[in-house]
């Protein structure tokens, strides 16, 4: 997606200039290549997006309970029919929305170690865990 890196830089500028957030409180996971083959991590966070958010926000002692947390995702999104994955009549209704991490494997690949999309259900679990450990001051923007 063109413009994502620029948008991240603009958001960082807004946070530091307008909201006076210290730069060392801002962490980014950015791919410098449109294909996602080269991942440039511009912070000390671990690799996979899910691990990044659950581990970092949940365990970082510098983030205190009640601090404001902003999660800002720019990238591709996807959706899947529940019927493709669930056989139960109630569970197979509707769709599962997902965000696509930069290091994801194509859906058609089933090789070991592939990185799946992050479903809305999984993302909800992440936000619940962050809120449980750090409080309810979470702003989440998904630009998919």
UniProtKB/TrEMBL annotation:
Superkingdom assignment: Eukaryota
UniProt name for this protein: Uncharacterized protein
Upper classification of the organism: Eukaryota, Fungi, Dikarya, Basidiomycota, Agaricomycotina
């Amino acid at each position: 997606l063109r413009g994502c890196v620029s948008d991240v830089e603009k958001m960082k500028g807004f946070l530091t200039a307008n909201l006076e957030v210290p730069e060392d409180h801002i962490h980014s996971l950015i791919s410098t290549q449109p294909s996602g083959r080269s991942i440039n991590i511009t912070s000390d966070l671990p690799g996979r997006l899910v691990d990044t958010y659950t581990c970092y926000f949940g365990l970082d002692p510098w983030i205190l309970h009640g601090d404001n947390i902003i999660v800002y995702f720019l990238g591709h999104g996807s959706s899947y029919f529940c019927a493709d994955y669930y056989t139960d009549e109630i569970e197979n209704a509707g769709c599962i929305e997902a965000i696509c991490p930069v290091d994801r494997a194509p859906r058609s690949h089933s090789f070991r170690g592939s990185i799946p999309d992050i479903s809305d259900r999984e993302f909800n679990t992440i936000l619940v865990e962050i809120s449980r450990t750090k409080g309810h001051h979470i702003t989440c923007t998904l630009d998919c």
